[in-house]
Specification:
Alpha-D-Glucose-1,6-Bisphosphate, Chain A, domain 4
Length: 159
């Protein structure tokens, strides 16, 4: 049975719910929170705001791997609360990313919970240990810094 890996992150930023939701519901903002060295490129036109069933195709440069094309579907959108992006095609055997925002003391808590499975069985497990796990940590660390810069407010990373 394939190993399901997980990433869980929480981030609290001093902002309001409307501002936070406006940022995360805008698909083009994915460019702002992706590391520059990943050469992120959205293919095709994007709507101003996401909707259930929206398919987003993009190319991303994965260091040591090269350019990969992903197709992601946005779904389970709960206005001003949460949504899911799920890989339809791409480098993972399975990718399910739950995004949530909520009002908390000190601002808005952004929560990410990613479940993913790598392809290639034992080779995928080895790749996870040697590269993928650290690369995903790097990407999510970058996202935290990019979110802080975008909202220009104090940042608290929750355990």
């Amino acid at each position: 049975m394939p190993k399901v890996h997980q990433i869980k992150r929480e981030l609290t930023i001093q902002t309001d719910l409307g501002t936070a939701w406006d940022f995360i519901r805008t698909p083009a903002n994915l460019n702002k929170i992706t590391p520059d060295d990943m050469d992120f490129e959205i293919i095709g036109e994007l709507p101003d705001t996401m909707y259930d069933g929206l398919l987003i195709e993009y190319r991303i440069g994965i260091p040591l791997v090269g350019k990969q094309t992903w197709l992601t579907e946005l779904k389970h959108i709960r206005e001003r609360h949460s949504f899911v992006d799920e890989q339809r095609t791409g480098p993972y055997k399975f990718w399910f990313h739950y995004h949530e925002i909520a009002e908390v003391d000190g601002g808005i808590r952004f929560r990410d919970h990613v479940s993913y499975i790598l392809p290639l069985g034992p080779l995928g497990s080895m790749a996870h240990c040697l590269y993928v796990k650290n690369e995903l940590e790097r990407v999510f660390n970058y996202r935290e810094k990019a979110m802080r810069a975008h909202f220009k407010g104090p940042l608290k990373t929750d355990p």
